[in-house]
């Protein structure tokens, strides 16, 4: 689990990132979980955008992404979900 200080640090790092995934009306599926997981391995910190036509609540989408990829939820801001998972091979972010 991330501490408040670590989440604050990651929020600051994520501020300038652009969302690289979008969740639409189909919601979260296996293919998306695989791609998000691979992106987390490469980048550690990513943003996912929940589109307006998504039928699920953004909190539910965030929970599915977290459970499906073993990531940590940094924050949900507006329709954007920020996820973090420590990379095994491409570790670049040093948490405080």
From TrEMBL:
NCBIfam families hit by this protein: RNA_bind_YhbY
Origin species: Amphibacillus xylanus (strain ATCC 51415 / DSM 6626 / JCM 7361 / LMG 17667 / NBRC 15112 / Ep01)
SUPFAM superfamilies: YhbY-like
Chain ranges of the CRM domain: 1-96
Superkingdom per UniProt: Bacteria
Key word Magnesium present: no
One Gene Ontology MF term: RNA binding
Sorted UniProt keywords: RNA-binding
Protein's name in the database: CRM domain-containing protein
Entry-linked Gene3D superfamilies: YhbY-like
Pfam families, alphabetized: CRS1_YhbY
Keyword RNA-binding: yes
């Amino acid at each position: 689990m991330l501490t408040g200080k670590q989440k604050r640090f990651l929020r600051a790092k994520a501020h300038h990132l652009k969302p690289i995934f979008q969740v639409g009306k189909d919601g979260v599926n296996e293919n998306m979980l695989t791609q998000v997981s691979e992106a987390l391995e490469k980048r550690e910190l990513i943003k996912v955008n929940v589109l307006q036509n998504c039928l699920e609540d953004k909190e539910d989408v965030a929970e599915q992404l977290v459970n499906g990829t073993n990531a940590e939820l940094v924050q949900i801001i507006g329709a954007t979900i920020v996820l973090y998972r420590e990379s095994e091979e491409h570790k670049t972010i040093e948490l405080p």
